[in-house]
Amino acid sequence: MSSYFSWMVGGPQGSGLNVSAEILAKALSRAGYYVFGQIEYHSNIKGKHSAYRLRIQDTPAGSHVETVHLLSALDEETLVGDMYHEFPAHRGHAHEVAAGGAVLYDAEQHKFIEWIERKDILLWEMPYAELLDKALTEAGKPGQARAYRIMTNTLALGASVAVLGFDFEPVAQAIRESFGMKAGKVAQLNVTAAKYAYEYAREKFAKDMKYKLPPPPPKREQILVKGTQAVGLAKLKAGCGLQTYYPISPATDESVYLENYQSDYNLLVLQTEDEVSAIDAAVMGAHGGLRASTSTSGPGFALMPEGLGFAAITEAPGPVLLLYQRGGPSTGLPTRQEQGDLQFALHAGQGDIPRIVIAPGDIEESFYDTFDAFNYADRYQVPVIVLVDKHLASCSQTLPVFDTSKLKIDRGLIYQPGASSNGDYLRHAITENGISPRAVPGTPGGIFWTTSDEHDPRGHITEGIANRIQMMEKRMNKMNLAAREIPDDKKFRLFGPAPGRNKTPVLVVGWGSTKGAIVDALKRIDPQHQNYSFLQLRIMRPFPIAQVSEILHKAAKVISFDCNYSGQIAAVIRAETGFRVHHQVVKFDGRPFSEDEVVVALEHAVAGGAERMIVSEGKIVPPEYGVEEFAQMLELRNKRPKMSAPMVPLPPGYNK
Fold first, then answer.
1. Radius of gyration for the alpha carbons in the chain, expressed in angstroms and rounded
2. With DSSP H G I counted as helix, E B as strand and the rest as coil, what are the percentages for the chain, rounded to 5?
3. Confidence check: pLDDT of 323 > 80
4. Which residues neighbour 637 within 8 Å (Cβ) at sequence distance 6 or greater?
5. Cys bridge to 142: 137, 214, 496, 537, which one at CB 3.0-4.6 A?
6. DSSP secondary structure letter of residue 593
């Protein structure tokens, strides 16, 4: 049984808490721990509440848990929430702390502590301003604590390290590295401040902490990587020559990451004027011989279907399109989680468009699947959509170093003029498998025509009946070829025993980032795989109909997990196989599934729960969800002192 420690830091956006969390994660990873980090943040630039969780474990972890063992609070909203400006109210995070757990809070927030109506947790006050002043005085900057207030996140880091019982020096080294070129006085000032907080918390509080870090596992070669970084690394390894984008959350981080490596990898990262230009530029780059890609999110992808059709009918080798899903519809939740674009990715565009749609389940698969996407684009001359999401984009995880020894670049069928070639090259020649040799610009005899209108093998526009039938069959047959050639282990993965004659009692079905929470939950409730199996669907088009159908029909109970409102994976399964899953578990509150939510949902489903269940905040959501929470908010609001900021008016009747 694995042992873990759950830590959270919360505070105002722009306070640097994410930097502190990533420094701690790096130090722990180097010590041999498995770390999973997950951040939640508002879509505004600065000021709103943000929180970063770390799950620190002695075995691999792929999700977060609801329980927090140590909460480091940099503002009152982390402690008790915002009862005055949000409806329903954000309740803060003190209620998430485990019984016997602890809260480190800034002394300036002491007046809010009385609002925490819990007697089973430890509340530890940290004099961050006083400790910061000591560090500044040592650096020859006395009395400037207010100007350096942003360093409070570094002090909170030091205090947390002490309570964790972790050595300070690896953290100090990670702090120095985080400043890069600015290492020196500024880096040392942060180290000194963190050390003062470390020593204070170790002396005052560490001995009383009930929960401890597990012993670190044996050290091994591993990396700590974010989802956007893994995708970027895959593009570099695959030889991507053109990356286009228009800024949009959360996809922009990937392009910004790639901008740092343009000169080293012969890569051009092009920021276009809009998403229409981004996909069209990528299509033309693919026709020009480059491996081309574009990255966007739901609102940006909504502008790209015309480009998908353009790529398909002209048989461009790509582009590879990274679709970072987020909360919708419209601009929806710009920085929150959702898997709401599966059906859109499968069907976007006018007419029948051949495309390959891949949905990696974690950061590691995001690397390998993105690499494969470029090979598929070249081999089958179709656009390839890689469906990731906000959760995969922004979470970080310790992983084995990516094994690139078996990654081979496949540029597909390229026109090679013979010695007696007369230049009569047919770019869209009818072939048995639908693939015509493509010419790279500059190839002798390789001049060709192509157009977004229907065309003949030479590329000239025609509306002839026989030609239309042949061309449609040619393009769409590529999907049959891909279905035959792509290995099954790339299409889906079955965790646990395959359903047999006696039927697996419960088959859990998931896709994309639901994988991590499902795998972790099943390790917890069924470590020997006696009662549960997990079917992870990875390639959505071409869908592995026969293989998946066989597995589904041999299971006694099938439960699907979807991070969207409508249960899109259940609908895809029904459309492709005719099978109707027995229970759909959906989550659409803008946050990813936790391990605890999967456990709760499985328990309800197995016990005969509803066909459709909604989960949020670690529990099954009842139909009257929000009523009790709102009543509690009113009660708390009436107890609190008046605030200087005006309160948002309540709906009529709620104050009666």
1. 27
2. 40, 20, 40
3. yes
4. 83, 84, 647
5. 137
6. P
CA distance 271 to 155: 38
φ and ψ at residue 246, rounded to 5 degrees: -120, 130
In total, how many domains does the chain have? 4
| Tens-digit pLDDT profile for residues 63-118 | 999 999 999 999 999 998 876 666 666 779 999 999 999 999 999 998 889 889 89
Torsion over CA of 214, 218, 223 and 224, rounded to 10 degrees? 10
For 48-63, the pLDDT digits (tens) are 889 999 999 999 999 9
Whether 625 maps to a domain, the answer reads no
Q: How far apart are CA 57 and CA 111, in angstroms?
A: 35
Pull the structure tokens for residue 639: 């107890």
Q: In what order do the strands lie in the sheet with 612-616?
A: 492-495, 532-537, 506-511, 558-562, 583-586, 612-616, 619-620
Q: Which of 220, 251, 267 is the last residue of a domain?
A: 220
Q: Which domain holds residue 177?
A: 4-220
* Mean pLDDT, all residues of the chain: 92
How would you class 607 by CB atoms within 10 Å of its CB: exposed for 0-12, middle for 13-18, buried for 19 or more?
A: exposed
Q: CA-to-CA distance for 308 and 371, rounded, in angstroms? A: 20
Closest CA to 150 of 27, 19, 49, 39: 19
